Amino acid sequence: MNDWERLHRQAEEYKQSYPPGTRVMLLHMNDPLHPVDDGMRGTVDHVDDGANIHMHWDNGRTLALCPADSFRRLTQEEIDQELRDQAQEQSMQNQTM
């Protein structure tokens, strides 16, 4: 199998495993110049044919994940906690207005 076939297969797997809207956590990015910080969470925008996962990171960045990066899908419990935290933050903002 050549590199293109390997990446194409990986891209198809990623497209199924990480559809748009999937929440992930970055464990480590192999970008020596401008990596996203380890531990950053984000939302999948799309997966391209080169197996790059295009992201909307919670810190506003949009740098894609590549197959060499380490990341994982957030658990449902983590997503539920994020939603509770967001609701609490919104409630506190409404109280100060």
Short description:
This protein is of the alpha+beta class and 97 residues long.
Question: What does the model show?
Answer:
The chain is an alpha+beta fold. It has one domain: SH3 type barrels, CATH 2.30.30.30. The chain contains two helices and four strands; from the N terminus they run H-E-E-E-E-H. It has helices at 3-17, 76-96, and strands at 23-28, 41-47, 53-57, 70-73. A four-stranded antiparallel beta sheet has the order 3-2-1-4. Strand 2 (41-47) and strand 3 (53-57) form a beta hairpin. The chain is elongated, with a radius of gyration of 16 Å. The N and C termini lie far apart (61 Å). The mean pLDDT is 93.
List key phrases describing it.
elongated; 4-stranded antiparallel beta sheet; 97 residues; 2 helices; alpha+beta; 23% strand; single chain
